[in-house]
Every structure is written in C-alpha cells, then in structure tokens.
Amino acid sequence: MSDDSIERRTYEVVVVGGGPAGMTAGLYATRLGHSTAVVGRGGGRAAMMRDVHNLLGVTEDTSGNEYLETGREQLESYGCDVVRDFVSSVDETDDGRFRVCGADAEFVADAVVLATGFDDARPEPPLPRTGRGLHYCLHCDAYMFVDEPVYVMGHGDSAATVAAIMLNFTDEVDLLTRGAEPTWSDETETMLANHPIDVVHADVTGVRNGDDGWLEALEFADDVGPRPTGSQTESGDGSVREYKGGFAMYGSEYNNGLATDLGCAVNDDGTVAVDDHGRTSVDGVYAVGDLTPGHNQVPVALGEGAKAGIAIHWELREFPREADEIEPAGLVRSEEVPGIPDALLEQAVEHHTYD
Ligand SMILES: Cc1cc2nc3c(=O)[nH]c(=O)nc-3n(C[C@H](O)[C@H](O)[C@H](O)COP(=O)(O)OP(=O)(O)OC[C@H]3O[C@@H](n4cnc5c(N)ncnc54)[C@H](O)[C@@H]3O)c2cc1C
Fold it and tell me: Does the C-beta of 115 come closer than 6 Å to ligand 1?
C-alpha cells in the first residue's frame, strides 16, 4: 500500500490501546467534547479475564471480552471512533501535534494517550489452563484459593513474595522454581526460610485436570515427597502434588516502545513515568493503566484513564480564560462560547435523551 493510499484522519485526542484504561480515557475525552479515536489491536490483559473480579457493578459471570465489548458500544454511542488497528509508530509533527501510524490509517492528534499495557511472561509448558488453575493476578484471584493447596511458579523475588502473600489465604503454598537457579536476594532467602513455604526445584512434567477443566494436580520430574504443611492426603506417588491453582511470576514485558520513541521517560522496571494525571515527560503525551506504575487492576486502570481524560480537557479547552490571558486575548465574548466545535456540539445535543 503506498503512502497516498493510507487514510488520514484528524482528531483532538487519539488513544493507543483499547483496554479498560484506554477506553476510559477515550470515554472522558469524548464526553468532555473532544473528537476522539481509540485505536487498539484487540486482545491484551483485560481480554484474558475469564471472569471479571473486583469491579463494582460487574458480576463474575461477565468475561473480559464481554466487558470490553460493552465499553466499545458505550464509546461509540457518544461518537468516539473505536478503530481496530496496530499502531507501529507515533511521532511529533512540525506543528506540535502527533502522527499516530496504524497499518490501515494514519491519525493526527493534539494529544495522545498511550494505554498499551504489558504482556505477562509465560513459563514453559506443560501448564494448567489460564483462569482454571494458572493465574496472573494475585489481587483478582487469591480469594479463589482460600484454604486450598496452591503453587507459585518462578525463581525471582516477586515469585517468593507472592508465595508468602498466599500464606494470608492458605497454609499449603509451594514455590516451584522448575529447575531454574533462584535469582532472589539473600533477604528473600531468609524470608523463605522463616515461612512455611515448600520450595520445590523439580520441573513440572504433567498437568492433571478435572472434567470441568480445573487443575487437580501437577506431576514432577522427581520424587518431591509429601507436602510438609497443610492437610494434603498422601497419594502414595511422591512425584504428584494436588493443587487448586496458582500463579506464574516471570515478569512483565511492557509495551513501551511508542513511549520511548517519543522520548518519554521510562522507569527501570519498564513502566512509563507519569504524574498524578497521567502526563508523561513529553508535553501532550499521556500514559495510563498497566503501562504505568501502580496496581495492575481494572478499577485502577479506569481511574487513571478518567484522570488523563480530564487533564487533557483542561489542557485543550480554553475556558476559564486565565487572568494573564485576558490581556492579550480580551474579555470572553458571548459569541465565543460554548467552547466546543460545532460538529461535536451537534453530536452531543443529538445524544441527549431528555424526551
Ligand atoms: C488472566 C488475567 C485476569 C485478570 N483478572 C482481573 C480481574 O478479575 N479484575 C481486575 O481488576 N483485574 C484483572 N486483571 C488485570 C487487568 O486485566 C489489567 O489490570 C487491565 O486490563 C489493565 O488495563 P489496560 O487497559 O492498562 O491494559 P490491557 O487490558 O492489557 O489493554 C491494553 C491494550 O493495548 C493494546 N495494544 C498494545 N500495543 C498496541 C499497539 N502498538 N497498537 C494498538 N494496540 C496496542 C493491547 O493489545 C490491549 O488491547 C487480570 C489480568 C490477567 C492477565
């Protein structure tokens, strides 16, 4: 496809990434009267939620994809363009705006929100099914494992910490290094030695699931013996242990390439550095959700998206005109208000359902 054949669209706000954080930034920007597009390739962490937890008003029989689809319909009802595309680059234009390049279209915007999240690094198979014994979100899923035998896979500090946190929920916690050399600190080693966590080094060679697809037990390459704590009954086979589920802790691969290309400051762990309103170190570029520091939870992502959307509105809209602007710009005349472009005004009025 030649450059000329690529469709070019202009907006005030373009959001990259259509997860909960990006769609909320898009929702606020749209409903605060800005022409807005949310450009996302689909998938992501929210789409992996088998059942949504911790989200007030959304019950557990809702899947991540159902939740995202409701969000998309909501955005479109207000006139936001929700576009399926992969964004390969974002750069600043000569006039201080941003060019967002997708495979099918190019978008020019006054402000850009990066909401591209991260990917969980996955351990090697064999593995239980995601959401049916293999989990990536402690605050979402620990509740399911109260008083159940659990594992944590990994060999770093974060895996050891999550194993210790699971002791708040159950007395049967194994830390499975799967033969990898531990990289945790001496302090972590001491912590592990002083908590009833069984560190198992043998690799996992098989997974036993029940008829409902939920994990029942893991098979190990060597005889790992009976679990020293908890209530597990002896199966007679030392290379099998029963588990209800567990967590894989192999790190996060942050989708921060667009941010680094733009020159945004990035923290040592790969998150994009932001202030309290999602502003990055580059004017006009915002970052929200799992891409930024903080708890990786849908409600947190929603809050960050909302704050960025409001901050963008303050940045892009004129009123109230500050005292130092009155002098050069003059008093605000009635013909100048309302400060919303005509097309968006019509769109908003059309959406009203007062009758
Ligand atoms: C298995 C699992 C279960 C979870 N369960 C829960 C739960 O029950 N409750 C809860 O509160 N939290 C849960 N979480 C955490 C929650 O999913 C995340 O905190 C939340 O989705 C973060 O939202 P986000 O918009 O920042 O990122 P994401 O949801 O990951 O969305 C980012 C989007 O950006 C897209 N993207 C990335 N790069 C590009 C690009 N270059 N161009 C276009 N698009 C791009 C991605 O494809 C993705 O669609 C769970 C996470 C996992 C992995």
Answer: yes
